[in-house]
Amino acid sequence: MHITIQGAGRGIGLAFAHHALAVGATDLYLTARNPEQSAGYARLPPSPNIHWFAMDFLDPDSIANTGDAILAKAPHLDRIITTAGLLHDGDLQPEKRLGALTPEAMLKLYQINAIGPILFFKSLWPELRRAHPLVVASISARVGSISDNQLGGWYSYRASKAALNQYMRTLAIELARYNPNAVIATLHPGTVDTNLSQPFRGHLAKDQLQTPAQSAANLWDVLDHLLPGNSGGFFAYDGKPIPY
User: Looking at the 3D structure of the chain, how many domains does it have?
Assistant: First the structure.
């Protein structure tokens, strides 16, 4: 298997890379903003079968160049996963009320959580549209479901993940015309022990918090069981569909 994982420098992305190797992946094409400075690069250094690429979802040229580099190196791709997710960063925090919205924060979350992933898939379009079995997935979040929103708050994160869901759904419809063997999916990983969830998990029961390895294994299993008829869907880590 030839696997591409965006965001493999840490967290769920790095756990996906380890899991892919454990289940028999032959070649990994991994990205991080600064690969050489990442935990992933240290744990899975470059080798004839592990290839690292620098890519920043805030830089469209970087996305396009990385896609070209992966296409030039990989004979084919069997699975492509993006794991990018920004919820908080220093002074940037989830908005609990309308008055907290700022254009700068809204744009940054949208760029990383929605624009980046779909532009990455655009950069890999020649491989996506080639008629062959393929699974393409992006990490979303249950809070991106509009119909499931009963609590409000987290305006920009919710909206950016809802946008990602819509981008992926639309990609699934277009891709089915070219590659009916492909599956496009968005995934809810649950609450995972990463930097993203750290400030917001104090109320969780111990068994509600997954390690990155547990989450990656669960999500990989979900992807293993999806069929082309499931393409365009939004699924939780237990395989259950989530309404948009």
Answer: 1
